[in-house]
Design goal:
The structure is a single chain. The protein is α/β, with parallel strands linked by helices. It has a domain of about 120 residues: Cytidine Deaminase, domain 2 (3-Layer(aba) Sandwich), CATH 3.40.140.10. About 30% of the residues lie in helices and about 30% in strands. The strands form three sheets. Strands 8-7-9-10-11-12 form a six-stranded mixed β-sheet, with helices on both faces. The chain has a four-stranded mixed β-sheet with strand order 4-3-6-5, covered by helices on one side. It has a two-stranded antiparallel ribbon with strand order 1-2. A hairpin with a 6-residue loop joins strand 3 and strand 4. It is flat, with a radius of gyration of 19 Å.
């Protein structure tokens, strides 16, 4: 497996002094997700997506992507996810294939037509939100009252559990907590959307009830991240950064409690709560 960090020789300037030293960077490489589907006697392969990600937990990333993009509704619809070895040498370790259960029907053309809007292109907010509502098959159970003591403790708990961030400072995190604020799962990635897909994919494999979880992300709350929460049925999402206008609109229409600027003992509630 490829390492999530890479050593590098740099020159550091401090107090006017110029010195050679070593540093560690977050690894960024492309991951191609392929999908095998169809009956056993007529399997087909579709190349779904290429995303720039930090290597590690690639199977979780692929499973979470399938789930949050609406291709599957349950992890049991995927027989397996594995690295593809029959690829060019330079692609080895950067291609995964998810095998759908033969009984799962898939219309590739329909999905490809919808993917442009459900991937938060921003071209048409109304179409994007309608696509999310059409994809979402699990209504969100409202979170209810927000406990400020629990919410404000989440960023420190997430930061303490981040391993790659401590060494590089250049990576996003997504973490799932229970209602009491106990950390359940955490994943890191150079892409904030990948971190969310990884943690949701891990939750699927662990059979965690997402309807009882709250999600914290290290960056801003953009439309794409809120979309993934809505499709997954997560009732509360908090971010240390700001949300976008379309993210707030989708959260409000979907019953998602959306929190932004979660820093210290302060936060803003943009929807729900």
């Amino acid at each position: 497996m490829r390492a999530p960090v890479a050593p590098i020789a740099i020159h550091r300037v401090e107090g006017g002094r110029y010195m050679a030293t070593d540093d560690i960077l977050v690894t960024e490489e492309p991951l191609e997700i392929r999908l095998g589907h169809g009956p056993l006697d007529d399997r087909k392969e579709m190349r779904l997506s290429v995303t720039m990600r930090t290597p590690g937990n690639d199977e979780e990333l692929a499973l979470g992507f399938l789930f949050t993009e609406g291709l599957i509704t349950e992890s049991t619809q995927v027989v397996r996810v594995e690295q593809c070895n029959n690829v060019k040498e330079e692609e080895r370790g950067n291609v995964v294939r998810a095998e759908l259960h033969p009984g799962v029907a898939l219309d590739p053309m329909k999905w490809q037509r919808n993917f442009y809007t459900t991937s938060s292109c921003g071209v048409c907010g109304k179409s994007s939100i309608e696509a999310v509502h059409a994809t979402c098959r699990r209504p969100i159970i409202p979170w209810g009252a927000i406990d400020p003591v629990v919410i404000t403790a989440l960023p420190d708990r997430m930061r303490e559990a981040q391993t790659v961030f401590k060494h590089t400072g250049g990576i996003h995190a997504a973490a799932l907590f229970d209602r009491s604020g106990n950390l359940l799962l955490l994943r890191e990635d150079i892409g904030r959307h990948n971190a969310v897909d990884k943690v949701i994919g891990a939750a699927q494999l662990a059979a965690l009830p997402l309807a009882a979880c709250q999600l914290l992300v290290s960056g801003r709350a953009g439309f794409e991240l809120v979309q993934k929460c809505v499709v997954a049925g997560i009732p509360l999402m908090a971010a240390v950064g700001a949300p976008s206008s379309l993210a707030v609109k989708l959260a409000g229409e979907s019953g998602l409690t959306l929190i932004g600027f979660l820093r210290g003992d302060r936060f803003n509630v943009y929807a729900g709560g």
